[in-house]
Amino acid sequence: MSPKEFYLVGDDVSTALTVLVEPKYKIEDLKRAVGGALHVVQPLGISFHTEDGETLSTVDEVLSANGPIAIKVDGMAVREPQGPTGLPLVGSYYEIFPDHLGNHYRLFRKYGGVIKTTNMGKTTYLTDDPEVAAVSFNESAYFTKKITEDHPLWGVKDNTAIFVGDTETENWRLAHKFLPVAMGPKAVRHYTPLMQSTVRASFPVFDSMSGTDQSWNVYQYMLKLASQTISKFSLGSDFGHFTDVGAPLHPIVTNIANLLSLNKKVTARGSWYQYLPFGDPQRLRDVRKNCYTLLQEAIDDVANREGGISQMPMNDAALNASCVVEYLLKAVDEHGQKIPQGLILANMIIVTGAGFTTTSALLSWLIYCLVTYEGTQERLLQELVDHGINNETEWNPDLAHGLPYLDKFVKETQRLHNASFQPGRTTKTDVVVPGGYRLPANSVIVNALYALHTNPKIWRDPFRFDPDRWDSEEVKKRHRCAYVPFATGPRGCIGFNFALLEVKILLSELVYRYEFTRDGYESVDYDPEFQLIRPLNFYVSARKRTQWPQRSV
Ligand code: HEM
Fold it and tell me: pTM here?
């Protein structure tokens, strides 16, 4: 073993660390050893240099060079991410809001693939670089999902629940053991009739608006439809959203939506703000209490159903249960253990909330794309007709996922209008990420999904809505983190099987029955204050079809 000193170009040579180098090392082994010592998360991106800048390509060259060895990461000196200087106290707030998607995109063009923003005392790093996203999504020695004061989910942090709790807790481990089984492809298949019947039960309401040529706010009705579907899946409850045109939203929906909206407001303003005993911070606490009460009632309803709850292995329970709550009450693991009773309530708030807030926004954007991008609605309808689909079709996942245009239309909509936009991860130590950017320990990095999905280095003509791009080799060979609408890694979405099947069936049923037309000429805005990207002022009329195109095949 030969001791050798290494330092990162960009740091002072006095920071050099000693690494023991074995002469039999391959160059990759040396990179891994040096990367580990200097906290370079992707060590194969390292290159070795003399102090004069000469490149050293072999282990022998490194061992025989004089003095400390300089290293670069992806050909770059190590550097601090840059961002707008901002104003005293508020930081970069006015550089970012209200159009945080557009402004972050602009800041990446100006400052590079990892940027730093400060906002009311909180510091956030963000990336639009898939290489950086890939390392941060991976739970590792360097990154984890830990919800600190700088994390976007701080206001709703709850270590008894999935999504809003830290990875390194026993509670997350348990939730992540039990819940995904209830949402895997096999389990989701048995919820297909539920999706089909829920959308068909909404037709009398849309028919009646069609009859009076009434235009309607798309998000309001997609929220009703998505939450009606998710509430049956998650809680086995019927929220009664389609008893008539003006049926109110169920209080579980309004309370969860308020919870998210208040959290975004409270966390956008700095950590001190949430402790105020009045105003939005107090409202956030009250709304959370209401959510708990309402959800517990829904859980008790399932637990007290006639016939009782029989226990069974997780996989059987997932196929047997009529909803996720029933699954959690039934399921036992390989040791005969159940998920602790005390974890069910908090997890069910999350499953329900994560389920309907995302799918309602996605359904709204799908309709937005249909009425905005010429020819898309006709193409989708033609595909349905060509596959013999109508409002009596018995849906199954193979049919829904076997519609190629629908599939790429959904993908392209999620690329440009994804509901989620800011999955955050926290560094466990200081770390040098791809591109040579250094993040301090305990800092939050947000994978900026919109900026990743429109990064011009990856996506040709990124703002053009073009479902056919999904057939191109370029897109098929993209980096695995260039498109991550559901995030990825151990903390990625567990509901994506359900979500994709749900939106495909609901959208197809609606498009087969109605012709959608945009109402109004204002540009459609997203809500900058909400935890998810949802359209605010988007109206359509949906006229019941009386004619359909001929089959083209
Ligand atoms: C269009 C629909 C959806 C989108 C875009 C979406 C997106 C995401 C994203 C980006 C994450 C990662 C969050 C983070 O890293 O902080 C996530 C996590 C999660 N999603 Fe979804 N989701 C969708 C639908 C659903 C549905 C329908 C459910 C359940 C019914 C669900 C349940 C969850 C849960 C429980 C987690 C947390 C996983 C964990 O913490 O380990 N999602 N989702």
Answer: 0.96
Q: Which range of residues forms the domain containing residue 24?
A: 2-73
How many Å apart are CA 51 and CA 32, to the nearest integer? 21
Domain boundary among the residues 56, 73, 90 is at: 73
pLDDT in tens, 349-376: 999 999 999 999 999 999 999 999 999 9
Residues 182 and 54 in one domain: no
The DSSP H or E segment spanning 280 is helix 279-303
Residue 361 alpha carbon, nearest atom of ligand 1: 1
Residue with the two structure tokens 């040791």 = 335
Number of domains in the chain: 2
Give the distance (Å) from ligand 1 centre to CA of residue 486.
6
pLDDT computed for residue 268 by the predictor: 66
Q: What gap in Å lies between CA 15 and CA 305, rounded to an integer?
A: 66
Q: Is the CB of 491 under 6 A from ligand 1?
A: yes
Q: 127: Cβ below 6 Å to ligand 1?
A: no
For residue 25, give the CATH number of its domain: 3.10.20.90
Atom of ligand 1 nearest to the CA of 175: 41
314 lies in the same domain as 180: yes
- Closest residue by Cα to atom 30, ligand 1, is 355
> What is the tens place of the pLDDT at every residue in 232-283?
999 999 999 999 999 999 999 999 988 888 877 777 666 677 777 778 889 9
Instruction: Show the DSSP H helices in 304-403 as ranges.
Output: 314-320, 324-330, 341-372, 376-386, 397-401
Closest CA to 359 of 420, 303, 311, 409: 420
With residues binned 3-state (H G I as helix, E B as strand, rest as coil), the percentages for the chain, rounded to 5, are 45, 15, 40
Contact assessment for residue 496 and residue 397, using Cβ atoms and an 8 Å cutoff: no
Which one of 358, 421, 498, 532 would you pick to mutate in the ligand 1 pocket, going by the greatest count of ligand atoms within 8 A of its CB? 358
User: If you take atom 27 of ligand 1, which residue's CA is the nearest one?
Assistant: 355
Domain co-membership, 322 together with 200: yes
Q: Provide the ipTM.
A: 0.99
